[in-house]
Amino acid sequence: LRALEIHGSRGDSSVVIGRDLLNRPVPAEKTIAITDSTVRHLYQKDFPPCEVIEIGVGERVKNLDTLKDIHERLVGLEADRSSFILGIGGGVVCDIAGFAASTYMRGLRFGLIPTTLLSQADAGVGGKNGVNLGGYKNLVGTFNQPEFVFCDLNLLRTLPEREILCGFAEFVKHAAIADLALFSYLEENHEGAVALEAAVMERLVHDSILIKSSIVNRDEREEGERRLLNFGHTFGHAIEKATGASHGVAVSAGMVIASRLSVQRGTLAPDDAGRLEALVRKLKLPTRITVNRESVLDALSKDKKKKGKSISFVLLQAIGRAVLEDIPIEDLEKAAREVL
Ligand SMILES: NC(=O)c1ccc[n+]([C@@H]2O[C@H](COP(=O)([O-])OP(=O)(O)OC[C@H]3O[C@@H](n4cnc5c(N)ncnc54)[C@H](O)[C@@H]3O)[C@@H](O)[C@H]2O)c1
User: First CA to last CA across the chain, in angstroms?
Assistant: First the structure.
């Protein structure tokens, strides 16, 4: 068992990484779990004894309609200020359960049990929650830390390969922006990672959360350094929107584009960009995706991080060091024409 702490402005969060964490005693007499249908089907037998609110599966349910359904179910279950919300699921469940808890009766206590690799390594940790609106991801939400995040590595055994790959992309992201040692570990242990070896996965999830929690402790509300966690995500989100590719696949191609752009702009040595590309390949993630370039450029021009005619973009300076730069959209479009 390993534990890390996040100190949020509205409360602290304790992140525990281990096994057999699902069936811990409930934190309050009236605990209500929020989960999706897949996770419920697989794991309800191991849930702590409590009421369950089930939502549909995937990104398409991460919206205000589902939030309203959850709020109405909470009313039906007579949830009150003493109730505790337990989100059990992937990033979609964690984001919406955290938001439902933060808004119902002006805020209930809540905790998360992330069940995908992406949500353990990234989405479940850090206190950002919310839903999509009008084609924009995570447009409505709050910063509010869960009381705890239990990352139970046993739950990863039932994950399909494509979901594992999404988690790998976030490992690469965290290592590339902040931790050369983790990057080297990934290079040396990529086979163990692909085989989901217990000790390798434990170290990767732990180190990934350590990087994210340290950044969140310094910049909870994403006013500066936390934006570095968007490495690979500007092009990644645009590719995801334009092609419907899964998040991890799109972000890995986005990281390769961002590292090439870093070379073009003179911040990164070509060898380091090559190293990143090689690691992405070793982890069985794509370095390139066939896309309709114009639809990616269109999605790019609607990016949330757009400020006037430029986008706050994350470049690499070295493996393990990143920097934010406002890059004119036309430069990004030019770069995209060269690499897409
Ligand atoms: N809040 C944040 O800081 C943050 C950071 C990164 C991503 N996100 C969000 O996270 C979401 C993506 O999360 P995700 O990749 O976990 O997707 P997801 O929640 O849609 O889960 C992916 C799929 O895996 C299934 N699943 C979950 N756990 C399983 C298990 N143990 N075994 C088998 N199947 C399982 C789910 O039912 C779903 O079909 C996006 O909405 C993204 O915006 C949030």
Answer: 43
